[in-house]
Amino acid sequence: MMKRVFGVNKEKEKQPPLTSIEEASNRSTKRGESVDEKIRKLDAALTRYKEQIKRTRPGPAREAIKARALRALKQKRIYEGQRDVLSSQSFNLDQVASAAEEIKDAQQTV
Rounded to an integer, what distance in angstroms lies between the CA atom of residue 25 and that of residue 100? Predict the structure, then answer.
């Protein structure tokens, strides 16, 4: 409705260019690598927390360290879920790209 009243700028009306399957796959892979890096950092933090828990005496300090470790563990699980989703997306994109290549090859042979 608003477009009819005020009109639309021609440049804004254009859609952004579509990305290729390879670009989308590369972007998905890159995001997966950044999630892997976050998981590695959380693993390092968890090992530090484990050592701190061993060294501290039972009490509020130890419980605070345990709470931090549990938060880090929850974050790690979330990141692992994201990594799994990204890897499956990347796999699916690779499958689509290979299917498209096979279709192009079949068209050229015919």
Answer: 14
Residue 59 — φ and ψ, nearest 5°?
155, -165
Helix (H) or strand (E) holding 105: helix 60-109
How many CA atoms lie less than 13 Å away from 6 in the CB half-sphere? 5
Domain boundaries, the chain: 25-109
Question: Model confidence over 43-69: pLDDT tens digits?
Answer: 999 999 999 999 999 999 999 999 999
Query: What is the rounded distance in angstroms from the CA atom of residue 95 to the CA atom of residue 102?
Result: 11
Q: CA-based angle 26:30:35, to the nearest 5?
A: 145
Closest CA to 38 of 71, 68, 83: 83
Q: What is the mean pLDDT of residues 8-30?
A: 72
